[in-house]
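QA checklist item 7 of 12: single-chain prediction sanity check.
[x] sequence parsed
[x] length recorded as 413
[x] structure emitted
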Amino acid sequence: MSTTKLVEGVFAVNKPKSISSAQVLRDLQHSFNRSALFAPWLETEKARRVEESKRQRQRRRDKRIQVKLGHGGTLDPMATGVLIVGVGKGTKLLQDFLTCTKTYEATVLFGAATDTYDVLGKVLSKAPYTHLTRENVEAALNKFRGPINQKPPLYSALRMDGKRLYEYAREGKEIPREIQERPVTTESLELRQWLPGGCHPYTWPDEEADEEEKLVADKVLHLDAASDKGKDNLPSTHNALGADLTQGTKRRREVENEDDAQIGITPACKRREISPTPTMSGARHNSGSPDGVTAPAARIQTPAEPQTSPKKLPSRAEPPAARLSMTVTSGFYVRSLCHDLGQDVGSLGIMSELVRTRQADFELGRNVLEYDDLCKAEDVWAPLLVQMLDDWREKMVREEEDAPDRDEILESS
């Protein structure tokens, strides 16, 4: 057995758009399995399995010997940013990151509601938006600061009667009972940028839900009641928009299964091409197509301010948007915030973009591995990863000197 120090611990990677958190782990695993850096780990794991009992070997579903990986909190496929990853014994510590605070930058687009609460769902309803200003949206944010009760979206991985909510939604079935609100805390919430209509790239989805889908959704979302309540607060000159949305190509969304944090599939380091049009979260899951094999995409940096063409002028005929920055506790749904904020200002709202800029002590631009580095030579990404794991280990040792159970986990072979 090798006496070389094993590479284990916790680090973070910058997840790109249009790829699931589970697929990120598969791509990492593919790079690690064939690397010299993780060869000692694989050798040790092989020797350990030889010593396993026959019963243990029979119970192991995946017989392949691969670098063990897990993530500390999933991101929707459309979202980008910090994805915490545990490797080897570091996977035992990932539970700690599920309860830590996270910082996001999100863009909410007003005037429409979808079944997924974001721009890749089907449009369920539309509402006035010409009355919206930066000032009244900023004032509405006060309601969402501090401890609040929040209702999760229907397209979520929460379980009801043993079945995930998104499974009910995919099947077009009513859920057994109302989704209950849950206590969460918004530690900070700011409007970073107001984007008047016509001065941003965000648009409503092309596809509108049919009447049956609207009826099922309204039993959960109660959009008609919320819309009527919002209209009561509007001047008589502000009426609901009457234009029909053009039917378009069906968009799909992969809702991740929270149980897939432990990954045992190795894909090739290849990735399907991403459309030049930004892909947002919320499209329905395509249960007929498996999670494709992917490879790291182009480097994704901390989001810049939306580019505005100097030739475009604000247009009240197009919906405005707002870029928000927030720090929230575990269990918070940014999509729900965008949905609820839209209703609270007498309109409707959907999430158009989402970036996780920080989770725990991992922050974009500071100590997060760039995803596209993984398809470069090992001598590019390996030193970066080793340094990140060493930094994390030193921090843990400093903070947990009096925790024997944690020290035992951190010990290297």
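[x] summary fact logged: The two ends are 10 Å apart (CA to CA).
[ ] second reviewer sign-off
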